[in-house]
Amino acid sequence: QFMRQQQGQSANAGLDSRRIDQGGFAAYEGMLAASPLDTGWAVAALSSVSTAADKQGIHAWLQSVQQPDGAFKADARSNLYTTGIVLRGLKDEASKSTQALQIAQKAAVYLLGKKSSSGTWGNDTALTALVFEAVHPYSSQDATLAPAVEAHLLAQQQANGSWASDPYTTALALRALALVPVTPQNPGQPVTTGTLQGTAKDA
User: Fold this and answer.
1) Is 81 within 8 Å of 130 (Cβ atoms)?
2) Which of these, 7, 18, 142, 174, is most buried using a 10 Å CB contact count?
3) pTM for this predicted structure
4) pLDDT tens digit string along 147-185?
5) Positive or negative torsion for Cα 156, 157, 160, 163
């Protein structure tokens, strides 16, 4: 418990100086404008340590800059990577906050609509892995998505076991592959439960 508190205090201390007007976050201290990308990273890091008021401010800012089609922009253009980072960052909050869920659902619709016929995004391994991880909870209606992503990623793996000989890309690919056999659980839908009944008899 002590370590978690210390880690939370360290995360807050480092990010508070980059927060703009109690809304989004900037990349560096002293910058005057927040960005969806940096806010997406921050919301994931602060999910377990921020106050309800802080979270509400972050969600409100994200909602204010989200495009009507669900995308988030980078360099004044709708951006798959940025949208994926924000959606992935909201994973935990989407099951707790209606506002976060609304943002996440719109972002997921946008990203799923940008998937290619081969089940990839941008024909790029890192982007495909990241976006798949982000949309996974919302992908239950597309039974072809996980197998397509798995096939693409395995085809791109190099002989040395890496993807593109890059640690970041390799980590993203492994995270995505770990989700392939996992049943998507949409945070906007109740978890289906059942009751098992039976009779035990001696042999």
Assistant:
1) yes
2) 18
3) 0.86
4) 999 999 999 999 999 999 999 999 999 999 999 999 999
5) positive
